[in-house]
Specification:
By secondary structure, the chain is an alpha+beta fold. It is 18% helix and 48% strand. A hairpin with a 5-residue loop joins β6 and β7. α1 runs antiparallel to α2. The two termini are 57 Å apart. The N terminus is likely disordered.
């Protein structure tokens, strides 16, 4: 293996040298005869062909078993971080009725991790007739548009110390204030809705497993007809 490497280097160097065959410059006072030139050229071509055949016949150096089994060292990944803190958020939407009693209208739950936003959508679909379409046969059918309203809750948790965390909650509510009806000359009517929206955001430090209340219609829960009650609990990593 040690002697094959220098021979290969010399062989490659020789092939590079003889590959471009350039004739020597001819001086006008010493011009060889045609027969001598042809014999010299033939000898040169024979040498070139002989060198090329020797180069092609030489086998490539074989790798040893140790070289063939040698593996490439890849960079190792960084240290594995511990599991992220996971939290369960239980929410209740409570609405005060005309008789003063509270009614739970929705109770969604979501699981999230620290410092990552989570969102809950509580939607209500209201169909509205926006016009009448008449086909070629003379039959008519109403065009219906669905207006989506409700609540969109977004929150983020940032651990503060054991047993509590910073709780950032934003509640966007949208409601249909009024529905306008427009009558047309052909006797048909169409509806259009006026939607109002309002956003309430609260950032506070909460304690796990204890109820945290946010007003929806008013920032003060006591003055709000609807309120959102949250209970946050940390899920232990297994």
């Amino acid at each position: 293996m040690r002697c094959a490497t220098p021979f290969l280097s010399a062989m490659l160097f020789q092939a590079i040298i003889i590959a471009p065959v350039v004739a020597a410059p001819v001086v006008a006072d010493d011009v060889p005869d045609a027969d001598a030139t042809r014999s010299s050229t033939a000898a040169t071509d024979a040498n070139v062909l002989r060198a090329e055949s020797n180069t092609a016949a030489q086998p490539a150096p074989a790798l040893s078993r140790r070289s063939a089994r040698k593996s490439v060292a890849l960079p190792l990944p960084g240290p594995i971080q511990g599991p992220q803190r996971t939290y369960r958020i239980a929410c209740r939407i409570v609405e005060r009725q005309d008789d003063g009693q509270d009614k739970v209208t929705s109770s969604p739950k979501v699981v999230t991790v620290a410092h990552q936003p989570a969102q809950i959508q509580i939607a209500q679909a209201t169909p509205l007739v926006t016009g009448v379409e008449t086909n070629a046969a003379g039959a008519s059918k109403p065009n219906v548009t669905v207006v989506t309203t409700g609540l969109s809750l977004a929150f983020k948790i940032a651990p503060d110390r054991p047993g509590r965390a910073s709780f950032d909650v934003s509640i966007e509510r949208s409601d249909i204030e009024s529905v306008d009806v427009t009558k047309h000359a052909d006797g048909s009517a169409s509806q259009s809705a006026r939607v109002a929206s309002q956003t309430t955001r609260v950032i506070d430090v909460i304690e796990f497993t204890k109820k945290f209340v946010v007003g929806i219609d008013h920032k003060d829960p006591a003055k709000s007809k609807r309120r959102a009650e949250f209970v946050v609990d940390e899920i232990e990593a297994k």
